[in-house]
């Protein structure tokens, strides 16, 4: 671990965790302000629903960023290309994967704090377990500098989160009968199918 915690990491890791926390707070407030002005249904929600509505705003942004960065590092860049590096795949990492892991830890810390503050409105014990295990796995990969590809593959599964959140938004807004609700359901299935196929392709090759 000590060899993996050099001068760059001493700055990058705390900064990326802090960036994740700040991002969540900023998007939470932005979601609240935009929603109160642009969506009539927002004013009809109770306080618990408003908190969850805003919470799902930064959940969606984290999911989009995590999925995009993971896809780039695993599928597009040569970081995990067998012919591009001499080291074995499990030992490969980059500043971008470190940064993404830090941001994700910041996100999970923020979300976990909100879950505990409003427990069990935003999620029960299963959410506490999920977030705890997620931070443990990401933190272990970050500290050891190993298995970054496999953590990125897990983070790529966040690609379905925006569709899950949109489904919730439409539900509480009373729009379950609109076409968008149906199209979103199809997109959710397709997104899940894509990430399953990509995971199997990566494991096969």
UniProtKB/TrEMBL annotation:
PROSITE patterns: TLC (PS50922)
Membrane topology: Multi-pass membrane protein
Tagged with keyword Transmembrane helix: yes
InterPro entries: TLC-dom, TLCD
Segments forming domain TLC: 48-205
GO annotations of cellular component type: membrane
Keywords: Membrane, Transmembrane, Transmembrane helix
Pfam family, one: TRAM_LAG1_CLN8
Superkingdom of the source species: Eukaryota
Annotated localization: Membrane
TM annotation in the entry: 12-30, 61-80, 101-121, 180-198
Protein name: TLC domain-containing protein
Organism: Zea mays (Maize)
């Amino acid at each position: 671990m000590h060899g993996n915690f050099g001068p760059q990491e001493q700055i990058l890791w705390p900064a990326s965790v802090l960036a994740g926390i700040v991002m969540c707070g900023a998007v939470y407030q932005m979601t609240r302000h935009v929603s109160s002005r642009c969506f009539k249904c927002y004013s009809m929600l109770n306080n618990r629903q408003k908190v969850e509505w805003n919470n799902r705003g930064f959940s969606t942004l984290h999911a989009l960023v995590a999925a995009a960065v993971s896809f780039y590092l695993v599928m597009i860049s040569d970081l995990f290309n067998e012919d591009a590096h001499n080291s074995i795949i499990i030992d490969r990492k980059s500043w971008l994967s470190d940064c993404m892991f830090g941001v994700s830890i910041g996100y999970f810390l923020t979300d976990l704090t909100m879950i505990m503050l409003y427990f069990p409105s935003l999620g029960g014990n299963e959410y506490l377990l999920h977030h705890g295990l997620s931070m443990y796995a990401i933190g272990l990969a970050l500290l050891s500098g190993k298995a970054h590809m496999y953590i990125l593959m897990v983070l790529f599964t966040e690609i379905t989160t925006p569709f899950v959140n949109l489904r919730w938004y439409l539900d509480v807004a009373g729009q379950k009968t609109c076409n968008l609700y149906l199209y979103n359901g199809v997109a959710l299935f397709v997104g899940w199918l894509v990430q399953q196929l990509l995971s199997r392709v990566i494991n096969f090759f």
